[in-house]
Amino acid sequence: MLDKYRNKEGFIDLNNTPYKADISERFKLIIDGVGYYYKYTTPERLYNELIAEELAKKLNIPCAHYDIGKVNERYIVLSEDFIKEGYTFTPMSAIIKERKNNNLEVIWDYLMKIYDDYDLVAKLMDQIVDIFLFDVVSANSDRHFHNYGILSNGKETNITPAFDNERILDVSRCIEEQRYNLGVDYASDMFKSPKNTLNKFLAYSDKSYTQRLKNMLWAITPESVDDILTKVEQKIKTKLPETTKKAVKEKFQKNLQMIEKSIKYAESKQL
Fold first, then answer.
1. Domain interval for residue 38
2. For 193, which of 73, 86, 128, 179 could close a Cys bridge (C-beta 3.0–4.6 Å)?
3. How confident is the model over 124-146, as pLDDT tens digits?
4. 35 φ, ψ to 5°?
C-alpha cells in the first residue's frame, strides 16, 4: 500500500507522502486512510522489524506489519495499526503492575483472576508461550509489559500480534546470557531480567515445549535466513547492505547453536 511512496533507496519518503498526524495519539500518522505508528530508529536496527516479521511468517506467528522510511533525513520504522474497529488493546502493563512479575507462571495467575475461564486463559497462555519462543528464536531482549497484551472485541480475545521487535539478534543479552525480559523468573529490577531463562524454561516445562521449540529451528537455518533476507529485499525493492546481511547471518547462526545446546542439555535431564 505504501510502495508508491518508496524512493530508490527503499524508504517510504514521508516528505513526499500526503500524511496527516492523528492528534489523538502521539507518533501516529494517517496515510491514504490507514493508520500507522512510527518511531525513529538507528542504522544498526533499521531492518530488524522487517526481518522479525518475515521470521514470524515462517513460524505462523501473528506479527504487526512493518516498513522503513525517512523523514527529514532521519530513519523511521512504520507499523500498520493492528487495532481494528471494535477491538480494544490492553497492554500487559495494565494487567500486571510490577515489572518483576513478567514471567509465565505469574501471568497465568493474573489472567485467571481477570477472566475466571480456564479454557480462555489456557489459550492465551499458549499464545504467550509462542511469543516467548519467538523471542528465543529471534534473540529478542525487549518483550516488556508494554510490548504485548490482549486484543478483544467482547466476543473474541487473543494475545496481540508480535510487535516492537526492534531489539532482535541481541547477542550480549539473549545469545550469551539468555535474558529475554519475558520469562520464567522474577527480575530484581526493571532493567535486569534474569539470566539462563531458556535453560530454566526447558527444565521446568513439559517436554512438549522442548519439541515446539525444536520445530521452530528450521526457520533460522542458514538457508531460511537467506530466504528471509531475500524477502526483505523484495519488500523494500532494493538490496540490503552486504555488511548487514553478513552480520544477520552470523548472529542467527550463533543463536541457533546456543538453542541447540540448551535443548540437548534439557533433553538429557528429561530422560
1. 3-83
2. 179
3. 999 999 999 999 999 999 998 88
4. -85, 135
Sheet of strand 28-31: strand arrangement: 12-13, 66-71, 74-80, 34-40, 28-31, 20-21
Listed residues 32, 61, 83: the one ending a domain: 83
Task: Cell numbers for 216, please give them.
Answer: 521452530
Output the CA–CA distances (angstroms, integers) from residue 65 to 38, 110, 161, 198, 226, in the order listed. Answer: 12, 29, 9, 27, 20
Residues 120 and 15 in one domain: no
Q: Answer yes or no: do 74 and 114 share one domain.
A: no
Number of domains, the chain: 2
Q: What is the CATH number of the domain that holds 117?
A: 1.10.1070.20
Lowest mean pLDDT among 12-26, 107-121, 151-165, 180-194: 180-194
Cβ atoms within 10 Å of 71's Cβ, excluding its own: 17
pLDDT digits (tens, 9 = 90+) for 238-249: 999 999 999 999
Among 53, 83, 113, the domain boundary falls at 83
pLDDT: which is higher, 257 or 145: 257
85 exposure class (CB count in 10 Å sphere: 0-12, 13-18, 19+): exposed
Same domain, 154 and 263: yes
| Closest listed residue to residue 126, CA positions, set 152, 168, 151, 158 | 158
Q: Average pLDDT for residues 203-222, to the nearest whole number?
A: 93
Could you tell me the sign of the dihedral formed by the alpha carbons of 262, 265, 270, 271, in that order?
positive
Q: Is the pLDDT of residue 40 over 60?
A: yes
Q: Identify the bridge partners of residue 70 per DSSP, sorted by sequence position.
A: 13, 75
